[in-house]
Amino acid sequence: MDLCLETFGATNDPALLLIGGASSSMDWWDTEFCERLAAPGRFVIRYDHRDTGQSPGSPPGEPRYTSADLATDPLRILDSLGIDRAHFVGLSMGGGIAQLLAALHGDRVRTLTLIATAPAGARTGSEALPPLNPPASPPAPDWHDRAAVIDYLVADQRAHGGTPFGEERVRRLAGKVVDRTRDMAASAVNHSLAAGNTPSFRLADIAAPTLVMHGTADPLFPPAYGAALAAEIPGARLVPLDGMGHEYPPPRLWDVVTAEIIRHTGDR
């Protein structure tokens, strides 16, 4: 499997791997955001999951890979670049992947940053989390109609995003996503259909220094999910992101988010 990736910064700086959410190509990690992370001395890596962007995939509805493949692709990326250990930053599904790798492959994870995600491993606490109440997705478009697909992506981002919603920027990114993606229909459905059991783990087994950042307006994973992560992972620190929804950090929060990540990954 060949995966498409892009890097920012000097190769001799500490590596920082960005792991995106389900059905997301690397484009949702905004280029300027990546450049800001690289500027203080980080070798930033972003990549297209299978069936997103320029990474190859499978026919729509027929993923020829497993969820375990998606979860271990970050290790393959590090291997391909000759990197033993990296700082992992995971968002949504990418946060679940990062948790699993930190628990089961801790020798590869220098630090862990979790954004807009939920506990993926077993918890020791018994307190119930709020039920999930995901926003309704817009009707699926004709995946061959560029304008309709862009409208669909913008509507979906608006339903999950916080306020204010930067439609002009999101529409620009959505256009880039559509233009770079080999098969939008496959990208939209195949991750949720990927079979296979990923290994189980306990959040308490995560030893990497952990930073949790969670939007106060996340409609998919309410703030209690971020608080639970910070409580369950030993020594984790929680930073609420005011007004952010279930989304990639918007520009108004870049100063906060990049500063926290640089601080967290410094001298480690």
UniProtKB/TrEMBL annotation:
Pfam family, one: Abhydrolase_1
Domain AB hydrolase-1: start-end pairs: 14-246
Keywords in alphabetical order: Hydrolase
Parts of the chain that traverse the membrane: none
Keyword Hydrolase assigned: yes
UniProt keyword Hydrolase present: yes
GO MF annotation, one: hydrolase activity
InterPro entries in UniProt: AB_hydrolase, AB_hydrolase_1, AB_hydrolase_fold
Start and end residues of each stretch annotated as Disordered: 48-68
Gene3D superfamilies linked to this entry: alpha/beta hydrolase
UniProt name for this protein: Alpha/beta fold hydrolase
Native source species: Amycolatopsis acididurans
Lineage of source species: Bacteria, Bacillati, Actinomycetota, Actinomycetes, Pseudonocardiales
